[in-house]
Prior knowledge:
The chain is an alpha+beta fold.
Amino acid sequence: MAAPVFxxxxxxxxxxxxxxDFYTRGLGLVAVMDRMLEGRWFERLAGADGACARxxxxxxPGGGCRIELLAFDAADGEHSSAVGDPTTLGLRHLAxxxxxxDARLATxxxxxxxxxxxxEVPRDIVKSGKRxxxxxxxxxxxVELCEYGExxxxxx
Length: 156
């Protein structure tokens, strides 16, 4: 089984405009996707009914440095502060791309007792298709394992 490769880092931000300015004007990244994430699949990922967030995926010209910025629509203006909660502000997870998500999850289940739920991202968000699962490493770091359909990550 092939080792995973880096896919992206995820940052939950309170002020998306400020973060976009920093990463685009300040660091030279460009937006390759900007849209709302919502629906049952996203509620399952966030672990909260009614969860929705604006998602902007940034990449370096030529690739290689993807950052996913999320701004949750928190009706009360509050965010979680729990370690490992996908809605907590700041650096939230490390995403690793794997060639065979089911095989990798089977290994983690057998070796570490980790039982992660697979979620399919709608194709109107990732045109090529994407299956993903969240899990925690032994120190509680949130890790996303993801598998893309043919052609790799193609965003809508």
